[in-house]
Amino acid sequence: MTERLPIFPLGAVLFPGLVLPLQIFEERYRDLMRDLLEGEEPFRFGVVSIELGHEVGPGAARRLAAVGCTAELRGVQRHDDGRYDVVTSGGTRFRIEDVDDSLSYLRADVTMLPEESGPEADKITEPVTRLFHRYCDRLTEHGAEVTELDDLPEQPVQLSYVVAASMVLDRHDKQRLLQAEDAATRLHLEYDLLRRENLLLKVFPAVPASEFLGGTVSPN
């Protein structure tokens, strides 16, 4: 069963549980917010990573990823000039089935994706947790400001998203994690990525240019 969502293309990947603030200034996305707030709750739209193109300007996002995540509105401030400052949180993953560009902003028919632990997911949670703590320690040693995440969730789905959202990775790797079929698959990918990143941090005396997410990950 499909559902129609307004789509917000973004040069980043949104994960379930991740807090995402947005400044909305383009006219088409002001239209999106206005239409959204005139509808019924829950107020949510789809965030989809841009695979080809960029965020700003007409026709900027020329190709979108196949899987995105709903952004659920948690707070909104409308400015006198029509801009919006909003705070959202990642909700449910979805797969795009069809795109409608008849309005100023994109809409899409999407299928919501289930969240399953997958086979033997419990066996990979401890190794991923151990490698993730080592990763945080090495980032700190290199001078990065890392939010304390001592109380990582034990539940595989939640753990997989906290780790995915918190790692410093390029968009391709982030999208691979979002699209993983289940938590076990995602955790195995994270295990390999954490081993790679820990080795790089051990060999090279520099922190990646991207920012480590600070205080924006919720395991709920």
Keywords:
220 residues; five-stranded mixed barrel; 5 helices
Word description of this protein:
The protein is of the alpha+beta class and 220 residues long. The protein has helices at residues 27-38, 122-141, 156-166, 171-179, 183-203, and strands at 3-10, 19-24, 44-53, 61-64, 67-78, 84-100, 107-112. It has a five-stranded mixed β-barrel. Helix 2 packs parallel to helix 3 (156-166) and helix 2 packs parallel to helix 5 (183-203). It is globular, with a radius of gyration of 18 Å. The protein starts with a strand and ends in a 17-residue tail after the last helix. The relative contact order is 0.18. Residues 209-220 have low confidence and may be disordered.
Provide a short characterization of the protein structure:
With 220 residues, this protein is α+β, with helices and mostly antiparallel strands. Helices cover 33% and strands 29% of the residues.
What is the spatial order of strands in the main beta sheet?
Answer: 1-3-5-6-7
Question: How many beta strands in the DSSP annotation?
Answer: 7
Averaged pLDDT: 88
Helical proportion, percent range: 25-40%
Structural class: alpha+beta
Overall geometry: globular
Lay out the secondary structure.
Layout: E1 3-10, E2 19-24, H1 27-38, E3 44-53, E4 61-64, E5 67-78, E6 84-100, E7 107-112, H2 122-141, H3 156-166, H4 171-179, H5 183-203
Parallel strand pairs: 1-3
Antiparallel strand pairs: 1-7, 2-6, 3-4, 3-5, 5-6, 6-7
Helix pairs in contact: 2-3, 2-5, 3-5
